[in-house]
């Protein structure tokens, strides 16, 4: 139990700290957050991608008079569900209707209080680490009274803005090496990425889900981060890691996806069943994570580059597939069930691979009845036509900056 006066003093101190805190680069997502009161706004994303900073930027720039409280403050460790009565009394005394909560999920029955304030017409904005509560569970707790917006590490344009550089091949190379986690971009210390990787595995997955075989979980994560862009199946992973069952492997993959550590792209098919049974391609949340934690001793620029392009697509779309019929095409982007784009990725287009890359792209263009497709390279530009279809070859720094 905590006194109302204690909550008030903590809130006042936190607000004072925010007024002098250096918030760094203004995130692109800031102007895309909806201004709503009917639903709670939840900012979801991988650990350390900048969710709290985004909340602080929103608070400072658009809601300077809002009530703010970070529940991870040590002075609030004894906060109990019954203390929401004292918190609410404080909020009403201050006449606040815009409420910003960081890590409120660590307090039991928080959703009851949030639903109450929504019913009273208050505006609620929440962020929280996946160790506390996953975004999927937030929807259940709030019975649909929420809108979730995803936040990812720095995009290419944000990276260039932070480094104060223009988009270029050199910028692409630097971005591919460092990735977009703000702390790592700032410091360059690989230990940050090692700790982040381990924190997600232990705190966000093993502890939360009661994973007993932590060693296999770690080995699996290392294998995936070392094999981005490749096809995986639960059965193959079960055999490779001598796991008890395929379902155990599939559970681990689900945990990775829930925490945003890895994404698994299905093969395109109009049959949901085939999507589920076909192999999936694995991609990591960030190329810096790959470079710092991969167990591979070879520099596979092609795979990391493909991962980079996937992340650009994932920031903007959720329905992403790979195409594989007679030939292969890396990405198929669909919106509301309609295929909008096909994208092939090739780090260096040359005499040995040009026929294969264009064949896969043109086959995908024809298969989906499109007029053109895109082939993203590291630093090449060109254009090819075949049977009335067009393939645009675009350098990455141009593609990523669009």
From TrEMBL:
It comes from the Bacteria. Residues 203-347 form the DUF4143 domain. Coiled coil: none annotated. Residues 39-160 form the AAA domain. This is AAA+ ATPase domain-containing protein. It comes from Dyadobacter jiangsuensis.
């Amino acid at each position: 139990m905590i006194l109302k006066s204690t909550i008030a003093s903590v809130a006042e101190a936190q607000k004072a700290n925010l007024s002098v805190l250096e918030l760094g680069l203004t995130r692109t997502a800031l102007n895309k957050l909806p201004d709503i009161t009917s639903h709670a706004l939840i900012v979801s994303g991988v650990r350390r991608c900048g969710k709290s900073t985004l909340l602080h930027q929103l608070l400072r720039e658009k809601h300077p008079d809002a009530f703010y409280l970070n529940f991870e403050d040590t002075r609030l460790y004894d906060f109990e569900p019954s203390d929401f009565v004292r918190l609410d009394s404080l909020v009403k005394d201050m006449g606040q209707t815009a409420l910003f909560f960081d890590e409120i999920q660590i307090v039991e029955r928080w959703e009851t209080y949030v639903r109450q304030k929504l019913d009273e017409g208050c505006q609620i904005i929440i962020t929280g680490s996946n160790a506390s509560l996953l975004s999927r569970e937030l929807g259940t707790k709030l019975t649909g009274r929420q809108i979730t917006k995803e936040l990812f590490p720095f995009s290419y344009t944000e990276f260039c803005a932070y480094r104060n550089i223009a988009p270029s091949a050199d910028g692409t190379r630097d971005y591919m090496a460092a990735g977009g986690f703000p702390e790592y971009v700032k410091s360059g210390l690989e230990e940050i990425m090692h700790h982040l990787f381990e924190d997600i595995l232990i705190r966000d997955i093993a502890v939360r889900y009661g994973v007993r075989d932590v060693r296999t979980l770690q080995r699996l994560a290392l294998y995936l981060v070392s094999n981005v862009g490749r096809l995986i199946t639960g059965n193959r992973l079960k055999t490779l890691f001598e796991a008890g069952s395929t379902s155990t492997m599939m559970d681990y993959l689900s945990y990775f996806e829930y925490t945003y550590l890895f994404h698994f792209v299905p093969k395109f098919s109009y049959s949901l069943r085939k999507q589920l049974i076909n192999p999936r391609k694995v991609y990591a949340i960030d190329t810096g994570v790959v470079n710092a934690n991969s167990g591979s001793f070879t520099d596979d620029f092609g795979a990391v580059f493909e991962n980079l392009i996937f992340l650009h697509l994932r920031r903007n779309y959720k329905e992403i597939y790979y195409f594989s019929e007679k030939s292969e095409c890396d990405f198929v982007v669909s919106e509301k069930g309609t295929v909008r784009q096909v994208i092939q990725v090739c780090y260096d287009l040359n005499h040995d691979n040009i026929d294969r890359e264009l064949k896969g792209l043109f086959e995908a263009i024809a298969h989906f009845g499109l007029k053109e497709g895109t082939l993203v390279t590291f630093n090449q530009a060109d254009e090819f036509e075949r049977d009335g279809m067009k393939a645009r070859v675009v350098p990455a720094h141009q593609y990523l900056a669009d």
